[in-house]
Amino acid sequence: MIRQIGLNIAYHRKRKGYTQEQLADRVPMSRGHLSHIESYNVQTKFSVSTLLAIAKALEIEPKLLFEFRE
């Protein structure tokens, strides 16, 4: 599930036209940490507050990050 959340973050980031650097600056967090969160191959822990900050920076409802596709 954590990997899918990361993929959803990447999906919504790209829909907004943001680079990882731009989104990381808006959160704020390092680009490297955001990259690890988005990566399917790297499982990185993150807090609920980080997830909420990412959703706010993307101007989306947090629930959209939990919509899992098959």
TrEMBL record:
Q: Name one GO molecular function term.
A: DNA binding
Keywords per UniProt? DNA-binding
Q: Which domain of life is it from?
A: Bacteria
Q: Which residues form the HTH cro/C1-type domain?
A: 9-65
GO cellular component assignments: cytosol
PANTHER family linked to this entry? HTH-TYPE TRANSCRIPTIONAL REGULATOR, TRANSCRIPTIONAL REGULATOR
Q: What is this protein called?
A: Helix-turn-helix transcriptional regulator
Q: Which organism is it from?
A: Zongyangia hominis
